[in-house]
Amino acid sequence: MSDRYIPGVPCWVDTLQPDPEAAVAFYGELFGWELENVMPPGSPGAYYTARLNGGDVAAVGSPPPGASGRATWNTYVWVTDADETAAKVRAAGGRVVAEPMDVHDAGRMAAFADPAGAEIFVWQPRRHRGATVVNEHGAVNFNTLYTPDVEGARAFYGAVFGWELLDVAGYMWALRAYGDFLEERTPGMRENMQRMGAPKRFEEVVASLTPSPGEPARWGVTFGANDVDTLATRAAELGGSVVVGPFDAPWSRMTVITDPQGATFTASKFVPENRDVTMPEGIATA
């Protein structure tokens, strides 16, 4: 099967945790992930690839030497050339947090911060081709930038990835080539979206943006869930915290959870009947 990503599309997420083995236990129980440490024998850290039905969905790893050790969820964007992207980041006023580096034969990665401070990673693929399972229970179905500077983000991510910021169903990041790519992979996709009443150009959407005045800029991750109410209850039983209890949102039902080591994520179930529901006031997803 051909790649499911093109340059400029988020393709992978991982969480770096002070105690990766404890995180493996939590997420394995919560989402049903099967996890394998893919680091070579004798490596100082661990990196567990999470799989569902044999397909890669995410990873749990150790923080790199010198890192703060704070548990986070990280978003990776597929790029053709990590070094070229680093130059674009600098030119657009961002900061290179980690210079481009090879990750064995899997690919080449780098970490950046946008002008408001939100950190995002890029992935130049070789053997590892990103997540092969998405939009299912326990798999990623959205990546969201939370930022106090919407216009600054518009300029930065437009320059670095070619994204456009659409004001449809909230702010959405669009990449024009992505809709054509998806239509080629799944003929009739555009027509099906129109039939469901999806917003215009939704097939081009690669991520979303939520304005967050007065809060630190950050990238967040949303996982699919078959039942967010049950998932929230189970997360609490496993030692996590339910930051925002299950609630109805446009096209979905959602909850916000923090794992036992402090990494926060959103879980969402697609609910077509909630198409016209408005986002509750004061709700901040992860």
According to CATH, the homologous superfamily of the domain at 140-274 is 2,3-Dihydroxybiphenyl 1,2-Dioxygenase, domain 1
Please compute the radius of gyration using only Cα atoms. 18 Å
The major beta sheet can be summarized as: 8 strands, mixed
Proportion in helices: 10-25%
Shape by Cα distribution = globular
Q: What is the string of SSEs from the N terminus onward?
A: EHEEEEHEEEEHEEHHEEHEEE
Q: Can you count the beta strands?
A: 16
Overall residue-averaged pLDDT value: 92
User: Can you name the CATH architecture of the domain at 140-274?
Assistant: Roll
CATH C-level class of the domain at 140-274? Alpha Beta
User: Can you list the strand order of the major beta sheet?
Assistant: 2-3-4-1-5-8-7-6
Q: What is the name of the CATH topology of the domain at 140-274?
A: 2,3-Dihydroxybiphenyl 1,2-Dioxygenase, domain 1
**Low-pLDDT residue intervals, each spanning 5 or more residues:** none
Strand percentage: 35-45%
* Number of helices, where a helix is a run of at least 4 consecutive DSSP H or I residues: 6
Distance between the termini: 32 Å
Q: What structural class do the secondary elements suggest? A: alpha+beta
